[in-house]
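Structural prep section.
Before we set up the soaks we want a predicted structure of the protein with phosphoenolpyruvate in place, mainly to decide which crystallisation condition to try first. Input record follows.
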Amino acid sequence: MRTPFVAGNWKMNKTIAEARALVSEMAPELQEIRGVEKVLCPPFTALFAVSSLLIGTDIGLGAQDMYWEEKGAFTGQVSPLMVRELCRYVIIGHSERRAYFGETDASVNRKVAAAQAFDLIPIVCVGETLSEYESGQTAEVVARQVREGLKGLPAEFGSRIVIAYEPVWAIGTGKASSGENANAVVRDIIRPALAELFDPQTAQATRVLYGGSVTAANAAEFFQQPEIDGALVGGASLKAGEFVAIVKAAAG
Ligand code: PEP
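Run finished without errors. Recording the tokens verbatim:
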């Protein structure tokens, strides 16, 4: 059995005061929802403040990225050691990082290996762009991102990784994929790639989320798909009521 998983990616939103207000509004209700792993991913500057509000709750904390080196002369970067002081989770390879900040499958792979070394659970994002989708390259692109991003890791760690299938054309556009399409990508592309990389048991044990314009209104369509184990939520995770409703939908 794969425990449902819902993470909120706040992206570059919320000052410390705003982050405190949002968490204070949603945490009491999130706490009531059982049977779902819940994770908030605020920007780096708000991690410490949010971490203190989450003490004693079952709500996890994640960073939105990190570098792979432990420390040193890497101005502007945040290390896995630093992330691990506050967080259990880290988003790696988000399409916005791939599109705007030069993230590649190779850098994703180094970051995922660093997550393993520092006992962090990576939420690894994969997904095709609109032009790749339109030219029928989804299978090739997504399989490559899984294969190259996760290569060289042991199977025991493979099953702890969380993968988020996020078609780039669905992120922040209000045009979500259909549940059926997302389920087919996970079933026919992502799990077979995991089976090849690790083994069939690991492929079945690994949580795979859908991400891309998930809202309270469409979440159930994704969660009822047999291959989809939860969601990575962007815009809707900035509204307490919406995010709580999405987590409730994941609880079934
Ligand atoms: C995301 O940032 O991972 C995401 C899925 O964004 P949105 O829900 O806003 O499409």
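Observations: Residues 67-236 form a domain with the TIM Barrel fold (CATH 3.20.20.70).
Flagged for discussion at group meeting.
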